[in-house]
Amino acid sequence: MVVPPPNTSLSLPARLLCYMGPPSAILLTAYASPKTALLAPITFLPTAWFYQKWERASSKDPQRRGELEPMVWIYATAGTLGLTAVAVTQILVCKAASALLFGSSEMRKQFWVEFARTSVDGLTPSELASRAALASSWQNWVFNAALFYIGAGLCEETLKYLPVVYCRRRGASEDRKQRDRAYLDYAMAGALSFGIVESIGFIYGSVKEQQSWPKLALTLFERVVIGQLGHLAAAALTAFRAIRKDYYGDKMSWWGVILPAVLFHGTYDYAALAFSASEGNVGWIHPAGVKKTVAMIGLAAGMIGIVTDQVRREWKELQKRDAARKTD
User: Fold this and answer.
1) Taking the mean position of all CA atoms in its chain, how far away is CA 303?
2) Cβ of 280: how many Cβ atoms within 10 Å?
3) Residues near 150 by beta carbon (within 8 Å), at least 6 away in sequence
4) Sign of the CA dihedral with 230 first, then 163, 81, and 42 last
5) Number of C-beta neighbours around residue 227 at 10 A
């Protein structure tokens, strides 16, 4: 009888989800946009990479790592119900912020018309000037801060923290005491799912605008590589801080656990919108110039590098504490 590797056993529903979930998602995407469906499998590459890393780590130290079954369900739930809940919350944040910032209903209506644009093609010079004036207004900058620090940063990083909360309460007490590194596995599963749906959405938007293949390749790089690295770095940072809190006695509230990830996420998104606003845009329209595109990607990579370095420091600190416990 073949014994499966540790932590990899799956129930029949979970197996069916693994076999049928990704193909079904791609087929549904094909119904809306065949070209997007053609590119969608690329968005699953980070998941395949993470699974290989997890499998090796779980084989070496199975008692401390997460189990595949809950990871599968976290992955499925975060990208569907979780993402839906976040989207609804973000809409409420946007509506509240616009109601407070734009006094007249006419100005508020104009803001939402401009915010919803995905292209400025066909606008007259006077319309572009009006749009640029709105983009440079203090109301727009405050609105972006509310959207990205509360709607994106706080809401999305809280979603990534929920798998940690689940892990904290899952299983027998003795089992939970050993599975400290499962926090990382479950948080990463949620972040990967969230990032896939987000990436497919951006690809669909690019295809809908009939962008050229080089621009589609740029979108893939920005979302599948840069964007996913940001999601994973933020999730890892939260997971490691939660491990410190629950297993090593660091005094932190849930807010203290997720705050660094919230600030990183909000600042990352806010900076990206600043490049869009610098070209007179309200909302997100990708910078048109090569210099601004390179500068934006460079800034994003630099921010992710800083957070990744902090993740590395957190990991080394946990290893030091493990070594100190073994010598006690």
Assistant:
1) 15
2) 17
3) 93, 266
4) positive
5) 23
191-218 pLDDT, tens digit per residue, is 999 899 999 999 998 898 888 888 899 9
First-to-last C-alpha distance (Å) of the chain: 41
**Six-digit token pair at 193?**
């799912």
CA atoms within 13 A on the CB side of 108: 12
The CA–CA distances, whole Å, from 84 to 22, 25, 77, 197, 252 equal 18, 16, 10, 11, 29
Write the CA distances from 239 to 38, 50, 79, 313, integer angstroms. 34, 15, 19, 13
Q: Which amino acid is at 298?
A: G
CA 32 to chain centre: 23
Asked if 232 and 65 touch (Cβ cutoff 8 Å), the reply is: no
Q: What per-residue confidence (pLDDT) applies to 172?
A: 47
Q: What is the pLDDT of residue 101?
A: 93
CA distance 246 to 232: 21
Q: What is the pTM of this model?
A: 0.91
Q: What is the dihedral of CA 222, 198, 237, 180, to 10 degrees?
A: -130
Per-residue pLDDT, 327: 74
For residue 203, the one-letter residue type is: I
Residue 58 amino acid letter: S
Longest dimension (CA), the chain: 75
Distance CA 47, CA 228 (A): 10
Residues 214-261: tens digit of each pLDDT: 889 999 999 999 999 999 999 999 999 999 998 888 888 989 999 999
Structure confidence by residue, pLDDT tens digits, 56-99: 998 888 888 889 999 999 999 999 999 999 999 999 999 999 99
Residue type, 105: S
Tokens representing 159 are 């979603």
